[in-house]
Design a protein that fits this description.
This protein is an alpha/beta fold. The protein has one domain: P-loop containing nucleotide triphosphate hydrolases (Rossmann fold). 36% of the residues lie in helices and 15% in strands. It contains ten helices and eight strands. It has helices spanning 3-11, 36-51, 61-66, 78-93, 113-124, 142-147, 155-160, 196-207, 225-230, 248-256, and strands at 17-19, 100-105, 130-135, 170-171, 177-180, 212-217, 236-242, 263-269. A hairpin with a 5-residue loop joins strand 4 and strand 5. Helix 4 packs across helix 5 (113-124). The two termini are 14 Å apart.
């Protein structure tokens, strides 16, 4: 067994499947005044720029697998194919327009980081698309731990200090994928996620490229006030549910916190038979 296969076997313990996609509403198109031809030209130019996005020091497949991150060369592995499928469903839902999606968990102690990072990795497989993960789970800060990130500023620092966006974007060794870590500050003001700086940040990030997909790694929607605030700032929501560990009423409570037009579906973690 290769090193990649061994590392991926560990990741399979967190295998995922998607179910129950909501197709009631589609995200509206951008400004209708813009002609389809002009929009096509803009999209082509954006895709060309994205294809040139490199990593300063590209991480090897073995290194990524050890961190539980999927890679294009893993073939028909179930985990990788699940995230490719999820990516396809998201693109179909959005009519190939870029968007902001929040990945949150249902249940105390359930972490959404694995799903957030691999959803972003799946988008980055395509050389015409770029993805960005923002770690909004400020209590756990799992992304910086998993990626072993060294940085000076992150999201919390940006929201409360005079810091430029470029100072919080981090290259993690994957082409076309960037991360914004939670930040050095230990806590934030109660209204930090509701202030105009957070909204402006998201607008800036999603509008820079026609094919950029922003993923918010959120704390549990059933136990965090921050998640309830963030859900108002995004286009879509995906819920991570541990297989066999959440009751019907608990799931219903989580679903009730998300507008039906935004809810895309549920990702099940720890599915039996995927190791």
């Amino acid at each position: 067994m290769s090193k990649i296969e061994e590392a991926l076997k560990k990741a399979r313990a967190k295998s995922t499947v998607l179910s129950g996609l909501n197709t009631e509403k589609d995200k509206p198109l951008n400004d209708p005044v813009i002609s389809s031809q002009a929009r096509s030209l803009v999209k082509t130019a954006s895709s060309s720029l994205i294809s040139l996005m490199k990593a300063e020091a590209e991480a090897g497949n073995d290194e990524l697998m050890k961190k539980g991150i999927i890679v294009p060369d893993s073939g028909l592995d179930k985990v990788t194919e699940s995230f490719r499928y999820l990516r396809t469903q998201l693109l179909q839902k959005s009519k190939n327009e870029n968007f902001i999606v929040m990945v949150s968990s249902c249940g105390k102690g359930v972490d959404s980081t694995f799903v957030s990072m691999n959803m972003a990795a799946a988008f980055a497989f395509d050389e015409t698309k770029t993805s960005l993960v923002i770690d909004c789970d400020i209590q756990r800060k799992n992304i910086e731990e998993i990626l072993e990130l060294e940085y000076e500023y992150g999201l919390l620092d940006f929201l409360e200090d005079d810091i430029e966006v470029a100072e919080i974007l981090k290259d993690i060794g994957i082409k076309r994928l960037r991360v914004i870590p939670a930040g050095k500050k230990q806590q934030i003001e109660s209204d930090s996620f509701t202030n105009t700086r957070m909204k402006s940040l998201l607008d800036n990030l999603v509008e820079r490229y026609q094919d950029r997909y922003v993923i918010l790694n959120s704390p549990s929607i059933t136990s965090s006030a921050d998640a309830s605030i963030l859900v108002e700032l995004v286009d879509y929501v995906v819920l991570v549910v541990p297989y066999g560990q959440v009751t019907g009423p608990e799931l219903e409570k989580a679903l009730s916190k998300v507008d039906k037009s935004k809810l895309l579906g549920v990702v099940l973690n720890d599915v039996p038979g995927w190791d």
